[in-house]
Design a protein that fits this description.
101 residues, alpha+beta, Alpha-Beta Plaits, 3 helices, 4 strands, 44% helix
Length: 101
């Protein structure tokens, strides 16, 4: 299962509207999970089975909830049982196709 998720508090770290500290804590939780992951400017991608992935996302929600009374969470999932290594394999297939064309 691949999951792309974005999490943010509705309150900010400072007057400039930054949510960096809360988001960084969520990313730390993801990285310490041991599951394959990557973070970009909009989402964190995570790979594992349903229970593993959802447990990590719940930890992230709990951490962000600790600093904000309201949390925004967006989740997109690609559920394909029996497949592993898709975090990179999907991109490699696309790159290979682009090189062939």
């Amino acid at each position: 299962m691949l999951v792309a998720f974005s999490i943010a508090p509705t309150t900010t770290d400072s007057a400039d509207g930054s949510v960096t500290a809360a988001v960084a804590e969520a990313v730390r939780i993801v990285r310490e999970s041991g599951l394959p992951n990557e973070t970009n400017s909009m989402f964190t991608n995570l790979e594992g089975d349903w229970d593993e992935v959802m447990a990590v996302i719940k930890q992230c929600v709990d951490a962000v909830s600790a600093v904000s009374p309201r949390v925004s969470l967006v989740i997109k999932a690609d559920i394909r049982p029996g497949r592993e290594g898709q975090l990179t394999a999907k991109v490699e297939r696309i790159e290979s196709t682009l090189r062939e064309s």
